[in-house]
Design brief:
Layout lengths: L1 H21 L8 E4 L7 H8 L5 E7 L19 H8 L3 H8 L17 H13 L6 H15 L12 E5 L7 H10 L4 E6 L2 H11 L1 H4 L2 H22 L3 E5 H6 L1 H11 L12 E2 L2 E2 L26 H19 L7
Parallel strand pairs: 1-3, 1-4, 2-3, 4-5
Antiparallel strand pairs: 6-7
Helix pairs in contact: 5-6, 8-10, 10-13
Length: 332
């Protein structure tokens, strides 16, 4: 009797999957990439887009980079489609499916994430198989279609979408990455957030001591991120939007209204609150856990620094920070 019930359940599941695939919506919209150094508000910004009816918001960091997550994935159209999927597949979905999604390990709350990797691969291969003369963009459209198609409990699956939004730290550092990104997505958008280094360093240092423990090495990385913002803005003009972390925290509505115009989507109050699959989430913070929403105390991290540290930050970052501030959007 158990085997019969198991077979019946499998048959029911297979039928449900066939029904799901039959009504799948292709995702062919461009990518709005959020990218800069970590601890600058990128994941929070993407969670502000979560739930907007005209946006597919990637629910985690976008990790389809290869061989590292912050390398634009090299797709060779001479390779078989199985190889394309192998390169792009984000294996973190397996862990989140098994254990649920957590913003940070120290948080108790987890969020249900029902995702079927086998279905994702089937969707991907079916998509590319249906394209007669495949181009690079088709491979990425196949991936986005397969990702959002295999995410079964996505609360914002339906409707007409204009962009996929996603956060990947450091991908925008490389000029070659940005050339590849805009080659695939000529109508794509890049959003980068610059955070005052006096507030950035304490957050980064506390979050990853191995990577940011040495103040000079940490600031070298912050400088690299900020120099890339200046370069990208000059290279791609109106397709790039530079923001300050401080405006994102203090003038959230003004910033999100501007970004709605930037992406040609309707302003919606859902853009004011960070969520995961339309559920409120707490901030990704290295400091004391706060309530869900935007964390205003992130603007005063500099108070934890010694005077010599503040002087080092000013000496090492002052020039490039001023150049970046001259290019960011103004909301004062």
């Amino acid at each position: 009797m158990f085997n019969k019930q198991l077979s019946a359940s499998q048959a029911l599941f297979d039928e449900a999957c066939r029904f799901w695939l039959q009504y799948l919506q292709p995702v062919t919209t461009p990518l709005a990439l959020i990218s800069q150094i970590q601890r600058s508000g990128g994941s929070m910004l993407n969670q502000l887009f979560d739930g907007h009816p005209e946006v597919h918001s990637h629910p985690h960091e976008l990790k389809f980079g290869y061989p590292r997550k912050f390398d634009w994935p090299p797709i060779d159209l001479a390779d078989p489609p199985e190889r394309w999927f192998e390169i792009l597949f984000e294996d973190i979905v397996v862990r989140h499916f098994k254990y649920g999604y957590k913003k940070m390990a120290k948080y108790e709350e987890t969020f249900l994430f029902i995702f079927l990797p086998s279905m994702q691969k089937e969707i991907f291969l079916n998509y590319v198989d249906a394209v007669t003369d495949i181009a690079g963009r088709d491979v990425f459209d196949a991936y986005m279609t397969s990702y959002f198609g295999a995410w079964l409990n996505n609360q914002n699956r339906r409707g007409t979408k204009k962009f996929v939004t996603a956060f990947t730290p450091r991908l925008a550092f490389s000029a070659a990455n940005m050339d590849s990104f805009f080659e695939i997505y000529p109508e794509g958008r890049l959003i980068s957030v610059v955070r005052d280094p006096k507030n950035w360093f304490p957050s980064a240092n506390r979050h990853e001591l191995d990577k940011y423990g040495d103040i000079r090495k940490a600031l070298d990385q912050w400088n690299e991120s900020t120099r890339s913002m200046v370069r990208n803005k000059k290279a791609y003009g109106d397709r790039v939007c530079l923001l300050t972390f401080e405006d994102l925290i203090q003038r959230t509505e003004s910033v999100m209204r501007h970004l709605a115009d930037f992406l040609d989507i309707a302003y919606n109050d859902i853009l004011l609150t960070p969520t995961f699959n339309k559920t409120l989430v707490k901030p990704n913070t290295s400091f004391k856990i706060e309530n869900p929403g935007i964390m205003v105390s992130a603007l005063t991290r500099y108070r934890t620094l010694r005077r010599e540290e503040l002087n080092t930050i000013e000496d090492m970052t002052g020039d490039i920070y001023s150049r970046a501030l001259g290019l960011v959007e103004s909301f004062s």
